[in-house]
Amino acid sequence: MRKETGILLAGSLGLLIGLGIFGVRKFLLKKSKEYNDYYSDFHRHFDKKHQEENPDGVEFLAMQ
Description:
The chain contains three helices and no strands. By secondary structure, the chain is mainly α.
């Protein structure tokens, strides 16, 4: 194998590996963002801002 062919193969292989790692990282960040968007509302009962607005609670509001 000539030197130039080896350099081209190594460069293309490095590019493919780099794009693959970038794609996997982007996929995992998208999954993490979807998870945070869905579950962010479930943790509001720990937030002081929402507790001060209406301290009656969910049970009281359900009975109205």
